[in-house]
């Protein structure tokens, strides 16, 4: 399979989606190469009639987002009328929470392609927030992922909180107007846990993410029941 790799210093390096820069020769400036970023890659081929080995050797990688007409042209090159009629043998994702199990099959190609375009249009901070939302959601589906992208502004992410003790300090500082440095010696993970449960927030690898449509720092009564759902 030609994966766009090259040998550098005896090591095989994958260069798909990356262009080796030209070297300035002292006279001519190297041309700038625009490399189009992608969010997902699919190794697709004609749907096999009997044995998957019948077509896997002819499979090719396509990168998403992709224009629908271009995707269908690729499908026709593999003897299928639409890209949804193809099969995929491998899947790569720039969004860890969206894997081949979430994608499922090619009948959901349109949703996956839509999601790729929306993620690519997000700012870097929104991309981090989006991954936090997905991580906080249990048993996510592709429709859930698209829905979360549509409501991204309704979530709040505490980027710099990696635990309930951090959250307790941020929460108290936010609601009391204190300089957070006064709280550096505070150790209150149980307080942070209790407040976070009532707010419905979730700790992720990207920070603490709120429930949709609610702040992480809203005042809540002690007796308030815990929120259960993030999306």
What would your notes on this structure say?
The protein has 231 residues and is of the alpha+beta class. Helix content is 33%, strand content 15%. The protein has eight helices and eight strands; from the N terminus they run E-E-E-H-E-H-E-H-H-H-H-E-H-H-E-E. A three-stranded antiparallel β-sheet has the order 4-3-5. A three-stranded antiparallel β-sheet has the order 6-8-7, with helices on one face.
List keywords for this structure.
231 residues, alpha+beta, three-stranded antiparallel β-sheet, disordered N terminus
Number of helical segments with 4 or more residues: 8
Structural class: alpha+beta
Major β-sheet strand ordering: 4-3-5
Low-confidence spans: 1-21
First-to-last CA distance: 40 Å
For the report, how would you describe the main beta sheet? Answer: 3 strands, antiparallel
Taken from the alpha-carbon principal axes, the silhouette is elongated
Question: How many distinct beta strands?
Answer: 8
The topology string of helices and strands comes to EEEHEHEHHHHEHHEE
Mean pLDDT: 80
> What is the alpha-carbon Rg in Å?
23 Å
The percent range for strand residues is 5-15%
Helix content: 25-40%
């Amino acid at each position: 399979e030609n994966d766009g790799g090259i040998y550098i210093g005896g090591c095989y390096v994958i260069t798909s989606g990356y262009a080796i820069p030209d070297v300035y020769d002292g006279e001519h400036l190297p041309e700038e190469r625009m490399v189009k970023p992608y969010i997902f890659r699919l190794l697709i081929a004609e749907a096999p009639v009997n044995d998957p080995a019948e077509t896997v050797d002819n499979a090719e990688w396509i990168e998403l987002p992709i224009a629908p007409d271009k995707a269908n042209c690729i499908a026709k090159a593999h003897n299928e009328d639409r890209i949804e009629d193809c099969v995929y043998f491998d899947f790569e994702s720039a969004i860890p929470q969206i894997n081949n199990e979430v994608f499922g099959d090619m009948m959901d190609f349109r949703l996956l392609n839509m999601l790729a375009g929306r993620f690519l249009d997000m700012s870097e901070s929104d991309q981090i927030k989006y991954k936090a939302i997905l991580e906080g959601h249990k048993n996510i589906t592709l429709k859930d992922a698209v829905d979360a992208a549509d409501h991204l502004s309704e979530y709040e992410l505490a980027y710099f909180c990696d635990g309930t003790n951090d959250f307790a300090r941020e929460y108290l500082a936010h609601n009391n107007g204190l300089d957070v440095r006064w709280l550096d010696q505070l150790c209150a993970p149980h307080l942070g846990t209790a407040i976070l449960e009532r707010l419905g927030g979730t700790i992720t690898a990207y920070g603490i993410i709120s429930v949709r449509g609610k702040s992480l720092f809203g005042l809540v009564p002690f007796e308030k029941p815990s929120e259960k759902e993030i999306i």
